[in-house]
Amino acid sequence: MKAKFLVPLLLFFGLAGFLAFGLTLNPREVPSPLIDKPAPNFRLARLDQPEQSFALDEMRGQVWLLNVWASWCVACRQEHPLLVRMAEQKLVPVVGLNYKEVRGDGAISTRGMALEAETTMAIERARRWLSDHGNPYQLSVLDIDGRVGIDFGVYGVPETFLIDREGRIRYKHIGPITPESLKTQIMPKVEELRRAG
Amino acid sequence: MKARSKRLMLVGGGVALLFAAVALVLSAFQQNLVFFHTPTEVSEGKAPTGKTFRIGGMVEDGSIAREADGITVRFAITDTAKVIPVTYKGTLPDLFKEGKGAVVQGKLEGGVFRATEVLAKHDENYMPPEAAHAVEQAQKAAQTVSQ
Amino acid sequence: MIPELGHFALILALVLSLVQAVVPLVGAHRNSSALMGVGRPAAQGQFFFILFSYVCLTWAFIQSDFSVQLAASNSHSATPLMYKITGVWGNHEGSLLLWAMSLSLWTVAVTVFSRHLPDAFLARVLGVLGWVSAGFISFTLVTSNPFERLLPAVADGRDLNPLLQDPGMIIHPPLLYMGYVGFSVAFAFAIAALLSGRLDAAWARWSRPWTTIAWVFLTAGIAVGSGWAYYELGWGGWWFWDPVENASFMPWLLGTALMHSLAVTEKRGAFRSWTVLLAIGAFSLSLLGTFLVRSGVITSVHAFATDPKRGLYILALLVIVIGFSLLLYAMRANKLMGGGSFGLVSRETSLLANNVLLTVASASVLLGTLYPLFLDALGLGKISVGPPYFEAVFVPLMTPVVVLMAFGPFLRWKDDDLLAEVRRVAPAFVASVAIGVGSAWAVDHLTWRTALGLSLAAWVVLASLQLLARRLGERAGASAGSRLRSITASWWGMWLAHFGIGIFIIGVTMVGSLDRHVDVKMKEGQHAELAGYTFVFRGAVDADGPNYDAARGNIELIRDGRSLGMLTPEKRVYLAQGMPMTEASLDIGVFRDVYVSLGEQLEDGAWIVSLYYKPFISWIWMGCLLMGVGGVFAAADRRYRRLAARDAAAAVGGRAGAAA
């Protein structure tokens, strides 16, 4: 065997090394700087009873999911049946963060719209959506202007945060939850946190 | 011609070709790579002026406005920390919306980014990775400052 | 029940593929014809089970069985039947199944059409194909099971991505996969030859028609994909240098080199080592393309699966298949040296030069595609490599290829007189440059790129005509009919494919230099002008389809005061995914397309309308068509069948001799 005939093989192994490294750079899996940090606290109006508010502290002692959604979000529609099934099987409590219900919708112009009008519209739209597609949430809160979303580092809908008993964010899932990711990533972490606490 | 010198010419030709090709590829890279910058980097003056580059981020809410001709669009792109105003002449992609991720390519002219291309993903309602990267960087920076 | 049957059939196919991978190879090693004989029925049985499995999956789509995860994610009860059927491969899992099925189809074709091959050689070929097949079927079963159930079922599916709901998408993936996967046959022949240590011209002759047919499929697949992008993406581009396009283009470039290299190996016995390397390379690039598309390493419009586990599996597959082949090559390559000698000026040299250039071009595309990944991996920042890079590299590399392509066929094998040949074609060359520069000036676009493109095209056309004239003049005195008949099909194939390149270059150059585009705001009754055409907006109406809502614009196209008809671009919103889609409308002509698409509707009821004028764009696809037809001619040459019969006779004779 002459050395020069090994050149193609060596070139290929170099390439394969890079590709293997490239696999670790999955662009979808952006590490969140908030992981293992206390979740930013908030107090927001509830979707079912807008006159009442809900604060993150109220979930203390439970392992739960905060799911960011909106009726205009197409990918939410994709994960929604799964959320409904999770709720039926009582897998884990899910709180919905309804994110920029009105102003996030590219089809609606909110210029000149008063906050009250926007809130009323958001409640009406979000409720209709939940009654059409099923309500998997223990409750939903309204983040009309997206401020809480920004605190959480939300840059797209849907996103789901796994929060532990002490109110720390333990995992962030970007994009729609799939049966696969639920089985292999979210639920094992939920079980682990439940055992730990 | 002797077999040896023939072989030499073939090998010499091959090597010359290889060098030419490498030079070609390098110069093409030199001139045509499009770098990617986040809005924060742009506002800190880290982006080149007069050279084409890309910005990724979210289209800021309520920022889309059309000029009277109907063709020129103004909007702003943000990584939640800094905002860069953008102008673009032409048809926007189907999935371009306020509050959604987008990547724009063009040049910076007097504080305004003149986009020649606006990209949104074709196949799903989600963020282009470059845009996600920009927002992520800004989040990290904010985190460091607040600590 | 049916999906479970499909799943079970796929498992059986895996078992058979393993049988096919192991038993014939052992048989070839031990020289046992009983064991070698297992390969053929195993391959055919495997095809039956994969086909059965595929039909089961299609059944789930047609029946809208949304308890199957894949159907729920990629189909909808209101989807038209045609798109229910094509939706099967409009996703990661289904397209893998299609991959496995086309590999199996190729394997069966080998068992049917290669009866003349020596038993041991055929056994090795089937063994190699069996390993590849086992790799892909197990990949499908382990990481991407298409029959995964979704329980309880959802009421309705999410529908197929609207971009894929298009006639072009019905045929593009199967053609492309047949091409991609077809190089596995050339690969298997090369590996079988390396394994047996018998690397003479016979091997090249056997694998030539297979390589050519695979190349025809790949050419057609790429052309259809490009046509789809042109009218479906709504902005009139026909090639984007997108990573996934590059993934199919790289094997095409290397496959083109392989076809030509095989010709030299068959006719002159030279370049054997190089040919083997190209056969491995073309198939490796097909696998690499599959990896890039399926692993999500490169983000692209096409990349739908981004699961690192899948990426890892394909990467492992890649390393095993390619690593093993290249190792085998390194071990056996010294046996491949030598062969027919040739002079510095000969057809061999011209083919070698083109081969090297095509390989370098392929490498430059690979580099451009992977460079962002390299920089990211090294932490040097995020970049994108766009069309300007590829154009800057590709034009200078392809210019000598095209010049040589038209000149090479004039040269004789072995040795020729350069000066005499150059003198012979010099008038055509000078005329081409004059025509190129002249027509660039005539269309009022005298840039060096337009002049170069048109000169090259003129050179290909003129040199091809001269070549034909010379070939016809070879047998002076014979009747015209007998002269025509004396030309072989493979010569016509070469001639047509080369001529097609000339047509293709005209299309690319003209559309690249002269296309016009304008975006305008239009209200009912308003008109706009572009490239001598008048567009009158006659308003927009609702035009809802089975699974989408749409607004349809009516735009009258007028030239010289005469109406050429109504263009009807649409803006659709697909209901299941709420996804907006632009559907362009075209007036297609031989010398130009007029292309219109709708932008968004403004508050005052006006629409943004994009108008395009695309001169000579159909020539791009006409050129591809000629190349494909040329390939079919070349593969259909009677010579292969005659030689096949001779080989078979020799093999039988040899066996009889051995028995005696």
TrEMBL record, chain A:
<keyword id="KW-0201">Cytochrome c-type biogenesis</keyword>
<dbReference type="InterPro" id="IPR013766">
    <property type="entry name" value="Thioredoxin_domain"/>
</dbReference>
<keyword id="KW-0676">Redox-active center</keyword>
<comment type="similarity">
    <text>Belongs to the thioredoxin family. DsbE subfamily.</text>
</comment>
<dbReference type="InterPro" id="IPR036249">
    <property type="entry name" value="Thioredoxin-like_sf"/>
</dbReference>
<feature type="domain" description="Thioredoxin">
    <location>
        <begin position="33"/>
        <end position="195"/>
    </location>
</feature>
<dbReference type="InterPro" id="IPR050553">
    <property type="entry name" value="Thioredoxin_ResA/DsbE_sf"/>
</dbReference>
<dbReference type="GO" id="GO:0017004">
    <property type="term" value="P:cytochrome complex assembly"/>
</dbReference>
<keyword id="KW-1015">Disulfide bond</keyword>
<protein>
    <submittedName>
        <fullName>Periplasmic protein thiol/disulfide oxidoreductase DsbE</fullName>
    </submittedName>
</protein>
<dbReference type="InterPro" id="IPR013740">
    <property type="entry name" value="Redoxin"/>
</dbReference>
<dbReference type="Pfam" id="PF08534">
    <property type="entry name" value="Redoxin"/>
</dbReference>
<dbReference type="GO" id="GO:0015036">
    <property type="term" value="F:disulfide oxidoreductase activity"/>
</dbReference>
<dbReference type="InterPro" id="IPR004799">
    <property type="entry name" value="Periplasmic_diS_OxRdtase_DsbE"/>
</dbReference>
<dbReference type="InterPro" id="IPR017937">
    <property type="entry name" value="Thioredoxin_CS"/>
</dbReference>
<dbReference type="GO" id="GO:0030288">
    <property type="term" value="C:outer membrane-bounded periplasmic space"/>
</dbReference>
UniProtKB/TrEMBL annotation, chain C:
<dbReference type="InterPro" id="IPR002541">
    <property type="entry name" value="Cyt_c_assembly"/>
</dbReference>
<feature type="domain" description="Cytochrome c assembly protein">
    <location>
        <begin position="89"/>
        <end position="295"/>
    </location>
</feature>
<dbReference type="GO" id="GO:0017004">
    <property type="term" value="P:cytochrome complex assembly"/>
</dbReference>
<dbReference type="GO" id="GO:0020037">
    <property type="term" value="F:heme binding"/>
</dbReference>
<keyword id="KW-1003">Cell membrane</keyword>
<protein>
    <submittedName>
        <fullName>Cytochrome c-type biogenesis protein</fullName>
    </submittedName>
</protein>
<keyword id="KW-0472">Membrane</keyword>
<keyword id="KW-0997">Cell inner membrane</keyword>
<feature type="transmembrane region" description="Helical">
    <location>
        <begin position="177"/>
        <end position="197"/>
    </location>
</feature>
<feature type="transmembrane region" description="Helical">
    <location>
        <begin position="121"/>
        <end position="142"/>
    </location>
</feature>
<comment type="function">
    <text>Required for the biogenesis of c-type cytochromes. Possible subunit of a heme lyase.</text>
</comment>
<feature type="transmembrane region" description="Helical">
    <location>
        <begin position="351"/>
        <end position="374"/>
    </location>
</feature>
<dbReference type="InterPro" id="IPR032523">
    <property type="entry name" value="CcmF_C"/>
</dbReference>
<feature type="transmembrane region" description="Helical">
    <location>
        <begin position="394"/>
        <end position="413"/>
    </location>
</feature>
<dbReference type="InterPro" id="IPR003568">
    <property type="entry name" value="Cyt_c_biogenesis_CcmF"/>
</dbReference>
<feature type="transmembrane region" description="Helical">
    <location>
        <begin position="96"/>
        <end position="114"/>
    </location>
</feature>
<comment type="similarity">
    <text>Belongs to the CcmF/CycK/Ccl1/NrfE/CcsA family.</text>
</comment>
<keyword id="KW-1133">Transmembrane helix</keyword>
<dbReference type="GO" id="GO:0005886">
    <property type="term" value="C:plasma membrane"/>
</dbReference>
<feature type="transmembrane region" description="Helical">
    <location>
        <begin position="425"/>
        <end position="442"/>
    </location>
</feature>
<keyword id="KW-0812">Transmembrane</keyword>
<feature type="transmembrane region" description="Helical">
    <location>
        <begin position="616"/>
        <end position="636"/>
    </location>
</feature>
